[in-house]
Design brief:
Blueprint (H helix, E strand, L loop, with lengths): L5 E9 L5 H11 L3 E12 L4 E6 L2 H12 L4 E6 L5 H13 L5 E3 L17 H8 L5 E2 L3 H8 L6 H12 L5 E4 L11 E4 L4 E4 L12 H14 L4 H17 L19
Parallel strand pairs: 1-2, 1-4, 4-5, 5-6, 6-7
Antiparallel strand pairs: 2-3, 7-8, 8-9
Helix pairs in contact: 1-7, 2-3, 3-4, 5-6, 7-8
Length: 264
């Protein structure tokens, strides 16, 4: 009998397959864990834009979570698109009920095409209820700016933002530097005491749809496999870098990363 670590993603569905639940499952599988899902919203989207979004009823989201947690040995959980206060509340209730400790929160706010995926009135509850449950949160620069209400262009500003986000109660903060003007592709981890920098290679491509989802999901799998947060980020960053380097030029907009680049 094959034993495998089991991971769960709680997020929205992307009909284009490049981001959301679809990207999460691919990334978790590629990083060696068995991926399960609880869908929060259905998005009609492709590589060019998000056409429409339908939030699932809270009782359906709760039922999915009950189904997974009562049958599987879930080692780590990742949240993505949680669009409304009501959805965040039901997810937090279940995370507390099932005593989830290895929680990676990707605070998805806006799609690559600019569509708002987190309602403005949900930001406060994300800060006060979801982030305090998180082992790690992984905002990009734009998301960190919304969470802190400050402008982030430099590493010094990213450090200050990480400290502010840490005060919301999450144990560690990873600010992704893909949009950092001073040092593009430089990620910054803050654990409440120390900073760690993760330099990266800037790859000149427009095929970056779903990079945030993929990166956070890879980290989640690496945590499930027993890695510390710093080591999990190291491994996940190497993975997402290769996935972008081998990205797929499909669709008419921002193509997706190649989750299984290592398969010939």
């Amino acid at each position: 009998m094959v034993m495998i670590k089991q991971t769960l993603t709680i997020a929205g569905s992307d009909s284009g397959g490049g981001a959301g639940i679809q990207a999460d499952i691919k990334a978790m599988s590629a990083n060696g864990t068995y991926a399960m899902s609880a869908i929060t919203s259905i998005t009609a989207q492709n590589t060019t834009n998000v056409i429409e979004v339908f939030d699932l009823p809270e009782h359906i989201i709760a039922a999915q979570l009950d189904a997974v947690f009562t049958d599987f040995d879930v080692t780590a959980v990742k949240t993505g698109m949680l669009s409304s206060p009501q959805i965040i509340k039901v997810v937090c209730q279940k995370l507390r009920q099932y005593q989830v400790t290895n929680l990676i929160v990707d605070p998805v706010m806006v799609s690559k095409s600019g569509y708002t995926l987190l309602k403005p009135d949900a930001i406060d509850i994300l800060k006060t209820e979801l982030l305090p449950l998180a082992l790690l949160t992984t905002p990009n620069i734009h998301e960190a700016e919304q969470l802190t209400e400050m402008t982030i262009r430099t590493v010094a500003e990213a450090r200050h933002a990480a400290k502010l986000i840490h005060r919301f109660g999450c144990r560690q903060v990873l600010i992704k530097g893909g949009h950092l003007l001073e040092k593009p592709a430089m990620d910054l981890l803050y654990d409440g005491r120390f900073f760690r920098m993760y330099p990266g290679t800037w790859i000149d491509t427009s095929n970056t749809h779903g990079t945030g989802c993929t990166y956070a999901s890879a980290i989640t799998s690496q945590v499930a496999l027993g890695n510390t947060i710093p080591d999990a980020i190291d491994k996940a960053k190497a993975y997402i870098t290769s996935a972008i380097q081998h990205s797929l030029s499909i669709g008419h907009g921002h193509g997706p990363t190649n989750h299984f680049f290592f398969l010939k």
